[in-house]
Design goal:
Length: 116
């Protein structure tokens, strides 16, 4: 069975299949924030999605973090490491990209997580 969550005009915020949540890219709504603020907002959004799907941040299996400025990776990592306990860190890739749709958008995060 496939279950789709948080419909949007052109995607779903997440799709669940066989006990795995495949989340779409999540970005901050307030793109006036710095990288730490945008990262915190995304983490809050992911917490809400995970909870709605019967999961939480300790069950994230993999994350892809897209950064429009790789020089800000350390600032993003500081928030990330405060959000996920070290013993539950997922596999992860941080990828530098040229454009996230708006020059003020600094980060987008895609996760895969186990769900009940």
């Amino acid at each position: 069975m496939i279950e789709r969550k948080n419909p949007r005009p052109h995607l779903h915020g997440g799709v669940i299949h066989n006990g795995v949540l495949y989340a779409s890219g999540h970005a901050a709504t307030d793109i006036g924030l710095d990288i730490a603020g945008q990262t915190r907002e995304i983490c809050d959004k992911l917490d809400a999605l995970l909870a709605a799907c019967g999961s939480d941040r300790t069950r994230i299996l993999h994350a892809r973090v897209y950064l429009s400025d790789m020089s800000k990776k350390a600032e993003m990592n500081e928030v990330w490491m405060g959000w996920i306990p070290a013993e539950h860190l997922p596999s992860r890739a941080a990828i530098g990209v040229a454009d996230l749709g708006d020059p003020r958008r600094l980060i987008e995060v895609v996760i895969t997580a186990a769900v009940d």
